[in-house]
Design brief:
Structural class: alpha+beta
CATH class of the largest domain: Alpha Beta
Strand content: 5-15%
CATH superfamily of the largest domain: Beta Polymerase, domain 2
Mean pLDDT: 80
Largest sheet: 8 strands, mixed
Strand order of the largest sheet: 1-11-10-2-3-6-5-4
Number of domains: 4
CATH architecture of the largest domain: 2-Layer Sandwich
Oligomer: single chain
Number of helices: 28
Distance between the termini: 134 Å
CATH topology of the largest domain: Beta Polymerase, domain 2
Shape: elongated
Number of strands: 13
């Protein structure tokens, strides 16, 4: 009885572990205000259009409910449905554990360490769709969690087998303790993302006045914003992303949600680079890149979030980067794919050019100098992030194609159009032209060449050759071949040694001559040099050298030596 009384004073729960958690008495009972009160909102009030709900999400919910579990569509999809928008992604929350979810579907995969989730896959290849299923998570007291020194990368061994762990700053490293729907709603970031929709009964479950905030166009953090940011500093980036995404609909960050951002920004330095890189891409590649840059500047967060993101914000007003951000937003709005390699190639082209020019000034050949410049810039600006192999390879191909576009002769153009990244490289060239570089004619030529038949390609090559002759422009990467100047008079081969036959060193033709082809014409009209013959010494005995000398003389028409 005394223990029960003490537990009540400390706010601890009675009993052992909660559903599927093994957490024991490490949970803390929070007041109803923190958890919120369950409110079921009928279809007549929320007015969600069922036709906007993805059939695959409905199938996942129905399958889990048929097996006796609770299941709801959750998160941003419910928010978008309330606003009359068709969600791009659908997430499902359930009280089934990841193992139980995996067993309910033929193609389901458990992923993640920090948060274990299940991907239910529909379709195959590029047409496949993924419904993400999460288990209701418990709202835990981080003061009772296992504390780890260092971060997730340096403490992997210590984290093995832990269900709930935080680092020295309070950031959650493991959170795989399952709970109730009420607790799951309390641990979500924002009230507008903490609603649950049952497509079967068409009821919305709301614990934190999410529907009210959606109508007021307010983005509000659930609970104390400072404490929530400390638990997971990436929530600050998510707040900026939602503010940018929903800005066009009139949403703004609540005062208490926005105030701690600048003060707690240094906490982001402890986040693994790969996770920050992924969050940066979400900011820039979900159709609201320009709005995200504007939000970062408005909130005083243009620096100190992530080094590469800081660079993008700093260069967002330069012509090339601005066009790249605008094109990314346009492609997302049109339902087209976007690649991080293309956007980052635009952002870092300025650095690559600077290093490339510096290396060429030091005497390096243009092609290897460019390759080394790319390696240097990628390591310095991007570094060790997830998927760096493919990302780096794609960026390198786009950059290496740029100087090759000036080579419009021989077999080079035909081989270039077969390159996997030719279209990306050409789009990059076009963007450079739109940014002010004089490349419009070159980009148009390559566009026509890539789509033409063999006869038209031959005409385009001939046209490019004539243009090069008229303008005197040669391939900038190809140096003119050095030609030996012929002797002015026919030498007496029998009286000269090899060194005496041509005492003057060969002279390379003038660069302009090489470009116009006049050096070759001069060589053709000059008299041909006489054939030189090496005199051989005769041995006094043996006859072998004499026979060779006689054979040589017979070939040249001279009489043999006596």
């Amino acid at each position: 009885m005394i223990k029960t009384f003490i537990d009540k004073l400390l706010g601890k729960r009675n009993g052992d572990a909660a559903h599927g958690s093994g957490a024991g008495d490490t949970r803390k009972r929070f007041p109803v205000k923190t958890f919120g009160k369950r409110v079921e909102v009928p279809a007549s009030v929320h007015r969600i259009d069922p036709s906007l709900v993805d059939r695959r999400a409905i199938e996942v919910v129905k399958t889990l409910q048929d097996k006796g579990f609770e299941a709801y569509i959750v998160g941003g999809a419910v928010r978008d449905l309330l606003l009359g928008l068709r969600p791009k992604d659908f997430d499902v929350a359930t009280n089934a554990t990841p193992e139980q979810v995996k067993a309910a579907f033929r193609r389901a995969f458990i992923i993640g360490r920090r948060f274990r989730i299940v991907h239910v896959v529909f379709g195959r290849g590029r047409e496949h769709e993924v419904i993400e299923v999460t288990t209701f998570r418990a709202y835990l007291d981080n003061q009772a969690a296992d504390r780890i020194k260092g971060n997730e990368k340096t403490s992997r061994q210590a984290l093995a087998g832990m269900q709930h762990a935080v680092d020295a700053s309070g950031r959650v490293l493991r959170d795989n303790v399952w709970g109730t729907q009420q607790e799951d709603a309390a641990r979500r970031d924002f009230s507008i993302n903490a609603m649950y929709y049952d497509p079967q009964s068409q009821i919305v479950v709301d614990y934190h006045h999410g529907i009210e905030d959606a109508r007021k166009r307010t983005i509000r953090m659930i609970g104390d914003a400072t404490a929530r940011y400390r638990e997971d500093p990436v929530r600050m980036v998510r707040a900026i992303r939602f503010a940018a995404k929903l800005h066009a609909l009139g949403f703004t960050l609540g005062k208490k949600t926005a105030e701690p951002l600048a003060e707690l920004r240094p906490l982001l330095a402890d986040i693994p680079p790969s996770r920050m890189f992924d969050e940066m891409l979400k900011l820039l590649q979900t159709g609201h890149a320009i709005a995200s840059v504007q939000q970062l500047r408005a909130l005083g967060l243009s620096e100190g979030i992530y080094p590469l993101l800081d660079l993008i914000v700093a260069r967002a007003d330069t012509p090339l980067v601005r066009l790249a951000l605008e094109d990314t937003d346009r492609r997302v709005a049109e339902g087209k794919s976007v690649a991080p390699a293309f956007l980052l190639a635009c952002v870092l082209w300025e650095d690559v050019l600077a290093v490339w020019q510096r290396r060429q000034a030091a005497g390096e050949h243009p092609s290897p100098a460019l390759s080394e410049a790319i390696t240097e810039v990628f390591e310095r600006r991007v570094g060790d992030v997830s998927g760096r192999g493919k990302l780096g390879a794609d960026m390198r191909e786009i950059w290496m194609l740029q100087p090759r576009f000036t080579r419009r002769s021989g077999k080079t153009p035909a081989s270039m159009v077969t390159q996997p990244r030719f279209r990306a490289g050409l789009d990059f060239l076009r963007l450079r032209s739109r940014a002010g570089e004089p490349l419009a004619e070159l980009a148009d030529w390559w566009e026509r060449f890539s789509l033409a038949d063999e006869a038209t390609r031959a005409e385009l090559l001939e046209s490019a050759r004539r243009t090069a002759q008229q303008t005197g422009k040669a391939d900038p990467e190809r140096k003119p071949r050095r030609r030996r100047k012929p002797a002015s008079a026919t030498p007496q081969a029998g009286d000269m040694t090899d060194e005496q036959a041509d005492p003057t060193p060969a002279r390379a033709p003038h660069a302009q001559d090489a470009a116009d082809g006049t050096a070759a014409l001069d060589d053709a009209s000059a008299p041909a040099p006489a054939k030189k013959r090496r005199r051989r010494r005769r041995k006094s005995a043996g006859g072998s050298e004499e026979g060779l000398a006689n054979d040589s003389a017979a070939e040249t028409g001279d009489a043999p030596a006596p």
